[in-house]
């Protein structure tokens, strides 16, 4: 069994606030069920950071169909920072439809994609030009309210857009969460050498492909929970049984089976509520 973090001690330090959705003190983060793609929402009181936007494919737009309803349910009408991990449409396809409905103050993209035609086209379609986009060319830390966002670009000689994914680590008051886009095990090992923040929650890279979520990455973080974000019966066989096997010892959660997965903290005792209590955010872990 991997060791749990010192959650109880830290929650005692949490300040009192108000949350329009739960009517309780909260910071909260959700892995949204967007089918085969990624979208995670982080909120600390009035501050919101999102990593990736879900897919757009044919007439299906997860930004409009799934992410926007989730934001509305949470009472979110403004996003402080939206990070795009890399240019694949299963990560950035929902950008324009989210931007049509919610104010987004800042979009963050890795410097290696400054001239990437796909991501630039999506940014323009969503109305993001010039200094509304922040390009990250070195390990960086940004702060939004109580959320600390650490950004780690991949090495410059990475061979594919997947491997150029921008690693985002978000620290809430008591958890650190790592989101690696679709980067492979080789890049995970590079980030270990960079001394990235150790995280209690990890989103498995590349939707649980066997090429990601290395044993080295898991041993480095010793995560309490590993989340797989993937579509039900997807044609890629994600998540790979080997990747799930490597995650044994952590709580394993899957958006294809569990729906949207939400963690929230009240700063009080641990609780857990069930899926039925929380549509459309279908699974909650109140710690
Ligand atoms: Zn992907």
What does this structure look like?
- With 287 residues, this protein is of the alpha/beta class.
- The protein has helices at 7-11, 62-73, 89-92, 95-101, 117-125, 185-193, 215-221, 241-246, 255-258, and strands at 27-31, 40-44, 47-51, 56-57, 60-61, 78-79, 81-84, 103-104, 107-110, 133-136, 140-144, 147-152, 167-171, 176-179, 201-203, 225-228, 251-254, 261-265, 283-286.
- The strands form 4 sheets. The protein has an 8-stranded mixed beta sheet, with no helix packed on it. A 7-stranded mixed beta sheet has the order 11-12-13-14-15-16-17.
- Strand 14 (176-179), helix 6 (185-193) and strand 15 (201-203) form a beta-alpha-beta unit.
- The longest helix has 12 residues, at 62-73.
- Residues 1-25 and 268-282 have low confidence and may be disordered.
- The structure holds zinc ion.
- Residues 88, 90-91, 182, 207 line the site of zinc ion.
- Residues 88, 90-91, 182, 207 line the site of zinc ion (ZN).
User: What is the typical, i.e. mean, pLDDT?
Assistant: 86
Proportion of residues in β-strands: 25-35%
Helix/strand-derived category reads alpha/beta
Query: How far apart lie the N and C ends?
Result: 19 Å
Bound molecules: zinc ion
Main pleated sheet: 8 strands, mixed
- How many H/I helical runs? 9
Oligomer: single chain
Q: Say how many strands there are.
A: 19
Give the H and E element order: HEEEEEHEEHHEEHEEEEEHEHEHEHEE
Domain module count: 1
Q: CATH top level?
A: Alpha Beta
* Helical residues, percent: 10-25%
Rough shape? globular
């Amino acid at each position: 069994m991997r060791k749990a973090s010192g959650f109880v001690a830290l929650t005692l330090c949490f300040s009192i606030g108000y949350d329009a959705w739960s009517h309780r003190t909260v910071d909260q983060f959700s892995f949204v069920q967007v089918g085969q793609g990624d979208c995670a929402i982080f909120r600390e009181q009035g501050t919101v950071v999102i990593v990736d936007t879900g897919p757009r494919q044919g007439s299906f737009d997860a930004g409009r169909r799934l992410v926007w309803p989730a934001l509305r349910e949470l009472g979110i009408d403004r996003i402080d920072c939206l990070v795009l991990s890399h240019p694949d449409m299963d990560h950035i396809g929902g950008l324009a439809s989210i931007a049509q409905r919610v104010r987004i103050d800042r979009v963050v993209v890795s410097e290696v994609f400054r001239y990437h035609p796909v991501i630039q086209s999506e940014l323009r379609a969503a109305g993001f030009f010039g200094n509304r986009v922040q390009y990250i060319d070195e390990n960086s830390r940004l702060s939004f309210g109580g959320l600390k966002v650490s950004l780690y670009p991949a090495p410059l000689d990475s061979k594919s857009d997947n491997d150029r994914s921008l690693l985002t680590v978000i620290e809430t008051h008591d958890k650190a969460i790592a989101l690696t886009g679709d980067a492979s095990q080789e890049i995970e090992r590079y980030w270990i050498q960079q001394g990235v923040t150790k995280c209690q929650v990890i989103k498995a890279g590349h939707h649980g492909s066997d090429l990601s979520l290395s044993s080295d990455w898991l041993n480095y973080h010793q995560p309490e929970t590993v989340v797989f974000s993937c579509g039900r019966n997807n044609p890629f066989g994600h998540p790979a049984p080997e990747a799930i096997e490597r995650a044994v010892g952590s709580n394993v959660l899957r958006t294809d089976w569990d729906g949207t997965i939400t963690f929230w903290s009240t700063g009080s005792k641990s609780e857990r509520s069930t899926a039925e209590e929380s549509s459309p955010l279908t699974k909650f872990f109140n710690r």
